[in-house]
Design brief:
Bound molecules: zinc ion
Shape: globular
Radius of gyration: 13 Å
Helix content: over 70%
Number of strands: 0
Number of helices: 4
Oligomer: single chain
């Protein structure tokens, strides 16, 4: 799994929608090896906690897009291809 794959699954991961054990293992493995995505998850989790405190939980699409763009920029800089 690379960063693109991971980010594609990110919202599902937070929504608890990943029920495939193999896929979940891949997601977690990527998190353990990719600092960029680890930071994204950490940041997203904190942001979601804030959202949850105010209104019924809904993953903010705008946030999702912003995180995706930020991570892809960083990952492209650190990965040769
Ligand atoms: Zn990554």
């Amino acid at each position: 799994m690379n960063c693109t794959d991971f980010l594609a699954k990110l919202t599902d991961y937070f929504d608890g929608q990943i029920i495939d054990a193999e896929l979940l293992a891949e997601v977690k493995e990527h998190l353990g090896t990719c600092h960029h995505c680890e930071v994204v998850v950490d940041t997203t989790r904190k942001t979601i906690d804030v959202y949850r405190g105010h209104q019924p939980y809904e993953f903010p699409e705008e946030l999702s897009e912003r995180l995706r763009a930020a991570v892809m920029t960083r990952c492209k800089a650190s990965v040769s291809k």
